[in-house]
Amino acid sequence: METLFTPYQALGGGALIGLASVLLMWTHGRIMGATGILAGFFTPTSVADWGWRAAVLLGMISAPLAYLLVSGNMPAFNVPVSTNMLMIGGVIVGFGVTLGSGCTSGHGVCGMARLSPRSIAATLTFMLTTAVTVYIVRHILGL
Amino acid sequence: MKIITAYIIGLIFGLGISISGMSNPAKVLNFFDVAGSWDGSLGLVMAAALILAFIGYKLVFAQNKPLFGANFFVPANRKLDTKLLSGSAIFGIGWGISGFCPGGSLPAIGNGSVEIIQFTIALIVGIFLAKAALKLVAVKAMPNS
Predict the structure, then answer these.
(1) pLDDT of A11 higher than 50
(2) Is there a smaller number of Cβ atoms within 10 Å at the N or the C end of chain A?
(3) Residue A128: domain span
(4) Are A55 and B10 within 8 A, CB to CB?
């Protein structure tokens, strides 16, 4: 499925992602990593620890509705893979980010911005394996 | 105040994800499909987020502590290990199959589609599977005597 190159939305949206990362560190001293926030939501160390995680997650989930109120449309959403691929992929993602201590937001934005060698290595690794997987799925298996 | 701030930060993050297209698997997968229907948008998303975070963190870390806390929670570990690299490699395989990374999927829960609910359940199952596996390995690594 073709998608349009959207440089302005990409830069603007990316800037908001970066801004949220800076604000969470400035106010709460925390890394804006989706993996860490979600995992900690299920295994919090205290009520206060659960509270800020729940609030961030709730804020994230309200975003499509806020987007709808401002723009009149829901954010674009197309899932070009089968339900099996979606769910098998989901389990693999959950397993991998837990083992690897982070994902695109935690390692790719926050960690790289701190010039953490672990995050730089993690990001290069998952960007590469994602690209190889997409190539295999689309161009070799033809799914 | 802490909770409201956290909510607003989550909303800003989610809006960034929604506007940029990170919660749209079709667009995400096309960024990686260099040999097919390539869409370079996500490269600009990461570049913009990184530049802003890099500059912003410099200002934040010039402070002694965060506004609402006693200290910054930042990993001190800077060494590479097999767990980090294999986990990241596995994550990429899942991302390539499904088109969702955790940060892209969580805001998308708000669109209420069946697909995002299916992915989120699978994601949480994967997280707990890994936690169980790590616990098992840790128990085995303990000396028996």
Answers:
(1) yes
(2) N
(3) 7-140
(4) yes
